[in-house]
Fold this sequence. Notes:
By secondary structure, this protein is an alpha/beta fold. About 30% of the residues lie in helices and about 20% in strands.
Amino acid sequence: MLIRVGIVGASGYTGLEAIEWLLGHPQAQITAVTSRHPNGYMLGDLYPHLMGRVRLPLEDASPEQLAAKCDVVLSCLPHGASARRSLDLLNAGCKVIDLSADFRLSCPALYEKWYGEKHPEPLKLGTTPYGLPELFGDAIPKSNLVANPGCVGTAAILPLAPLVKEGLIECDDIIIDCKSSVSSEGRALRKEGLYCEAAESVSVHAIGSSRHQPEITDIVKRYSGKEIHLSFTPHVVPMERGVMVTSYVKPTGTVSTNQIRECLLAYYHESPFVRVISHLPATRYVTRTNCVDIAVRENGSRITILSALDNLVKGGSGAAIQNLNLMFGLPVTTGLQRGF
Length: 340
């Protein structure tokens, strides 16, 4: 039996990426796509390469209409708007994978501090599974709502969470530097995303106010039970897709670089999409895959951990398909095999 999948916000980058991967999923069928475009506008009109492959109109469908057509909906709407639509879909009887940040954090006060508004359903914060199957896979199949992780959050949390939990690194002095692609900022028209602004330039943004920061600290604490303190600096680089996160950590006591690497290997040896590698990672090696590459190097008094992934796949729609698979009892790799 095919899983009927709807995409809310299909005109954005993550919506498009989800559609392209779901077309190769053997047990999923896209049955509805929504957008703000006028009714009757076809998906192939928006993305000509999908013409003939997806014969669906872009609808402004109600939650009840979507629930009648879909077993699960991927909500690719912006932060704020996504929470309300996801709650309406849940009430209509649909499973939801929310790709915004609206259900990632653990408490209403933290959400309000970083997003500047009250959450429409505070009780969902901290009780909604964080959709990183490698760390929270046991909780995902039991839930009708999953909070899909952010791209930078995924790249940072995967190496840090096990090391913090095992007490191998100091929690109060972590430095993270992030390089992310222009598509990480979304498809909305912004001055910073224009070619003449982004090309041939590396920019720094949101120092001390990046919303990736609370996601990283909150989820590492949720997994490890330990609070961490970090300095986080995000950069945007002129490439289409990709994220590289560099974490500078201090080992505890006499912990060695090899012990750090062995810990990560032990944690992820059964995780098909996490590769703890011996060579240095590069975004080109993970582009259009659902893999994240992690490397560890000694660097003076610190240890440097590098993580690379594709922000639209493992950092977005690929992770959503992993969560979809778990919610419907399928192997986590289903439909993602070309991501190896």
